[in-house]
């Protein structure tokens, strides 16, 4: 049976909702008086799910829909969707790569400079009236001059960050699961080995079980007391408790974080610290880029509706027909 109906379990941006509503086949689960009863009655008709990472789309969730063919994820990271399970059950998962790469790399560089040069702290100093009352903001301990940055996960965004870092005069090295033959940056086979050698550790690693708490107490100890951690990838990659300890005990110097383990909840210990810069997961968050991402979600589902190949299937679910 070709399942023609589209399910949105949670609200998504207006561009997505309007694009999918235009098909005349969208069902918004949160608008249903009894969502469970709706799923029971209509499960076999659902062919597509649009999701934005607000719910876990795991095997148990997907198995409710016997004719499900596509899960279109808003975002390049799809750690809330069990893509391996989907691949084993003939379901295509799509994400939104490329269209956000440059925006996220820009944010990463912004966060890096904010953290190294204490720009949010100095701005707070001015706003509090301290400049006039107490004199200039103290000179910053850190600078980008003469520094080496180690990138964890040199993928699309990692490479865009590396290009920007080179333009800023930083030396770039990287660690990933394997060495890449088409890049000139030095490869480190171990993360601890790289952390020992760099001034800044920049994580762009995806979430999920394979990267869970990859940046742990050992890695932070290797980064050292002058070291700076920037995380623009996923919060689950960093052991947040170990990070708080490391910042508290001056095991590392400072951190800049766009992502957290339990978003939108940020540990009060981090909020209380002066030597961290905290952003509310804004890596791709401009109208320009979010619209491009949203359109890709719509276009992947429209491709399914038209019997065409999806635009951006993830590696775990290569497309082989609907
Ligand atoms: P990508 O091109 O797929 O790159 C991901 C990189 O991660 C690959 O180079 C891969 O390299 C590496 N990797 C995967 N598993 C790994 C592991 N277990 N250990 C070490 N490295 C691993 O993805 P992208 O477009 O650059 O996006 C990367 C991530 O950025 C996304 O998954 C998302 O979580 C995050 N992101 C954050 C924001 C934000 O707003 N902060 C926005 C967009 C994306 P190897 O295969 O060589 O290991």
* CATH homologous superfamily (4th level) name of the largest domain: NAD(P)-binding Rossmann-like Domain
Uncertain residue segments: none
Q: Which of globular, elongated, flat, extended, rod-shaped describes the shape?
A: elongated
- Average pLDDT, rounded to a whole number, is 98
At CATH level 2, the architecture of the largest domain is 3-Layer(aba) Sandwich
Give a list of the ligands. Answer: NADP nicotinamide-adenine-dinucleotide phosphate
Gyration radius, to the nearest Å? 22 Å
**Total individual domains:** 2
- The class by helix and strand makeup works out as alpha/beta
Cα(first) to Cα(last) distance is 11 Å
Remind me, CATH topology of the largest domain? Rossmann fold
By DSSP, the count of extended strands is: 12
The number of helical elements comes to: 13
CATH class term of the largest domain:
Alpha Beta
Give a quick account of the main beta sheet: strands, pairing sense, barrel closure. Answer: 7 strands, parallel
Explained architecture:
With 322 residues, this protein is an alpha/beta fold. It is built from 13 helices and twelve strands. The strands form two sheets. The chain has a seven-stranded parallel β-sheet, sandwiched between helices. Strands 2-1-3-4-5 form a five-stranded parallel β-sheet. α1 (14-21) runs parallel beside α13 (287-305) and α5 crosses α8 (156-167). The radius of gyration is 22 Å and the shape is elongated. The N and C termini lie close together (11 Å). Bound molecules: NADP nicotinamide-adenine-dinucleotide phosphate.
């Amino acid at each position: 049976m070709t399942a023609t109906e589209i399910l949105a379990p949670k609200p998504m941006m207006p561009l997505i909702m309007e694009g999918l509503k235009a098909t005349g086949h969208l069902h918004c689960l949160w608008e249903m008086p009894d969502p469970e009863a709706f799923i029971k009655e209509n499960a076999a008709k659902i062919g597509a799910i649009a999701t934005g990472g607000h719910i876990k789309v795991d095997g148990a969730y997907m198995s409710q829909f016997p004719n499900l063919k596509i899960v279109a994820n808003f975002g390049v990271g799809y750690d809330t969707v069990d893509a391996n399970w989907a691949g084993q059950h003939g379901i295509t998962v799509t994400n939104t790569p490329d269209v956000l790469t440059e925006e996220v790399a820009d944010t990463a560089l912004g966060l890096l400079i904010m953290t190294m040069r204490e720009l949010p702290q100095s701005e707070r100093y001015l706003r509090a009236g301290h400049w006039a009352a107490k004199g200039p903001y103290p000179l910053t301990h850190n600078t980008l001059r003469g520094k080496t940055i180690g990138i964890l996960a040199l993928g699309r965004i990692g490479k865009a960050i590396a290009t920007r870092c080179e333009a800023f005069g930083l030396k770039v090295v990287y660690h990933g699961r394997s060495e890449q033959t088409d890049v000139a940056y030095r490869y480190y086979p171990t993360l601890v080995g790289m952390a020992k050698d760099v001034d800044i550790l920049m994580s762009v690693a995806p979430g999920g079980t394979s990267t869970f708490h990859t940046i742990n107490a050992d890695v932070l100890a290797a980064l050292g007391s002058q070291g700076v951690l920037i995380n623009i990838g996923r919060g689950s990659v960093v052991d947040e408790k170990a990070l708080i300890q490391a910042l508290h005990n001056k095991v590392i110097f400072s951190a800049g974080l766009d992502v957290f383990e339990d978003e939108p909840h940020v540990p009060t210990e981090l909020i209380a610290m002066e030597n961290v810069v905290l952003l509310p997961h804004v890596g791709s968050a401009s109208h320009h880029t979010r619209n491009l991402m949203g359109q890709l979600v719509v276009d992947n589902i429209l491709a399914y509706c038209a019997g065409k190949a999806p635009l951006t299937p993830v590696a775990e679910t290569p497309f082989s027909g609907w």
